[in-house]
Design a protein that fits this description.
Strand content: 25-35%
Structural class: alpha/beta
Largest sheet: 7 strands, mixed
Shape: globular
Strand order of the largest sheet: 1-7-6-2-5-4-3
Distance between the termini: 20 Å
Order of helices and strands: EHEHEEHEEEH
Oligomer: single chain
Length: about 160
């Protein structure tokens, strides 16, 4: 199952992302793919705002992992951009986060191939011809399909 939308501004991307949180389920892994500066962290910021988080949201490029606690789950925002080798994930203990209770957004998942769990949803960000961001969601698991169906239906309300 695939779902595609376009965002013509950062504000529009944030607005679309704010609706994501109400469809998330504990244990979900969401892979965020796309070139540097395309809006992956902006998207996660929108998700967090939609969940009611009011604090600062920064890219985890240097910290690798940022943690946000909510009543229903913990959300981890992971950025693997600086990883030199997938084996580094073993040394930083990232496998401890796959506990089935957290929601994990992973930027640059291709840098962790072979060491990351299968993502429930893959979100690919691309630039369109009219300078819009094209955001393509693909479900990779049953949980991902359930999420995507719920999200698609929710955006049309």
């Amino acid at each position: 199952m695939t779902f595609i939308f376009s965002a013509f501004s950062e504000e529009e991307l944030l607005k679309r992302a704010k609706t994501v949180g109400r469809h998330l389920q504990p244990g979900m892994v969401i892979a965020l793919e796309g070139p540097l500066g395309i809006g992956k962290t902006t998207f996660v910021r929108g998700v967090l705002r939609g969940l009611g988080y009011k604090g600062s949201v920064k890219s985890p490029t240097y910290t690798l992992i940022e943690e946000y606690r909510f009543s229903a789950f913990v959300l981890y925002h992971v950025d693997l951009y600086r990883l030199l080798s997938p084996e580094e994930l073993e040394f930083i203990g990232l496998s401890d986060y796959w506990n089935g209770q957290a929601v994990i957004f992973i930027e640059w998942p291709e840098k962790g191939l072979g060491f990351l769990p299968k993502s429930d949803v893959q979100v690919c960000f691309k630039m369109g011809e009219a300078e819009e961001r094209i955001v393509e969601w693909t479900a990779n698991t049953q949980k991902g399909e359930s999420f995507l169906l719920s999200y698609k239906t929710g955006t049309q309300e």
